[in-house]
Amino acid sequence: MQIYHLSHIDLDGYGCQMVSREIYTNAFAHDPSLSLHFYNANYGKEVNARLEQIYREIKRTKTKNPKNNATHILITDLNLTLEECDSLVQAVLELNLNGFQVTFELLDHHKSGQECAQKYTWYYLDTKRCATQIIYDTLLARYGLCDSVQKWLTPMVRMINSIDLWLEGGYAFEFGKVAMRLIVECKELNRFMFDGEDRHYKLALLKESAKFLPQEKGAILLDNAVLEMKKCFLKGNLLSDTLDNLVSNFQCNLLTQKAEQCSIYYGKYRGFLSYSIGNISVLANLFLKNNPQFDFFIDVSARGNVSLRANNQCDVSLLAQNCFNGGGHANASGGKIEGFKESFIYEDIKECVQNILRGEEYE
Question: Cβ neighbours of residue 252 under 8 Å, at least 6 residues apart?
Fold first, then answer.
């Protein structure tokens, strides 16, 4: 069984994935065919981009393992437009006509999805429960869950329901405010560059938060513990180093693991391409110091702004001038990709930038 779970990027959205991960892994604990794939999207163009990414992954997975056809697409805490719903139906139909076994459902609570819910039976809408509560009730009834997990997960779901629906008298409402801020301010790992790692980070912090929920003054205890929780996840502790340094080292290690995947070339020079990291000075210089096989580091923002760093191996001011209508210093320069089309898929950005570095015009 292949599960592809697409959810929103707020506390409720990640809460849904916290629930599905616990229930699916518990229900299919002895089934080696279970494979969970998580995706997150904000509203707008990213929803379709992530769905297209899921379709491609479904096709790739079948090519890799032809016998494992059973696939389920689960969408939570996102209300699709009628056009997006129609596209989803058509895409799944085409997959199934080509030998796949794909089912799908959407569980949401946003009133703006009412028109879609009236048209499609797979579009479940309940405005009186948050999406985390909906998926918890749905999967719990469908698969069950061991008592030890229910003991900590049920209160977390109730808490998310209170804060997401803004029920000031609801269960653990004050705790929910801290948990909501925990996710909103959890920006140490860029989700476009470190998609899986960023999600794992947020879900790990949520699960760690659960131990404070039943305690007296749990909201205050969690508030005080956030910094330590983050530092511990990033391979440090409260006194080992600053959060900034821990993040830089952690990210640098992740980037090193992506060395081949993220390599681009400008003539004889080898560069590393990142997307939407921003403020790369510390990270880029650390990466180039630790990875001397790279001559330059380039980061492209969602608006097409380009930041370049080098370590005396490549004059990035000339690179910026020749390729991005920019300039600057030999080891630190910038520019812009005119007419840049925002994308949410790293591979698309890499293809675009590599073509520009080859001298091809951006279209």
Answer: 283, 286, 287, 290
Collapsing DSSP to helix, strand or coil, 5 comes out as strand
Q: Tokens 């209508």 correspond to what residue?
A: 325
d(CA 195, CA 41): 11
Residue 12 CB burial class (10 angstroms; 0-12, 13-18, ≥19): buried
Instruction: Give 181-203 pLDDT, tens digit per residue.
Output: 999 999 999 898 999 999 999 99
- Closest among 199, 85, 210, 102 to 154, alpha carbons compared: 210
Model pTM greater than 0.85? yes
Give 42-46's long-range contacts (Cβ < 8 A, gap of 24+): 42/8, 42/9, 43/78, 45/342, 45/344, 46/344
Average per-residue pLDDT in the chain? Answer: 94
What is the structure's pLDDT at 64? 53
**Contact indicator for 130, 12 with CB cutoff of 8 Å:** yes
pLDDT digits (tens, 9 = 90+) for 42-52: 998 999 999 99
Which pair of tokens denotes residue 258? 């992506």
Does residue 152 surpass a pLDDT of 80? Answer: yes
User: How far is it, in rounded angstroms, from Cα 39 to Cα 196?
Assistant: 8
Cβ atoms 350, 273 nearer than 8 A: yes
Contacts of 117 (CB under 8 A, 6+ apart): 123, 124, 125
Burial of 7 (0-12, 13-18, 19+ CB in 10 A): buried
Mean pLDDT across the stretch 236-249?
A: 93
What 3 state SS string does 78-97 have?
CCCCHHHHHHHHHHHHHHHH
Between helix 82-97 and helix 45-64 the angle, nearest 10°, is 10
Coil/strand/helix, residue 261:
coil
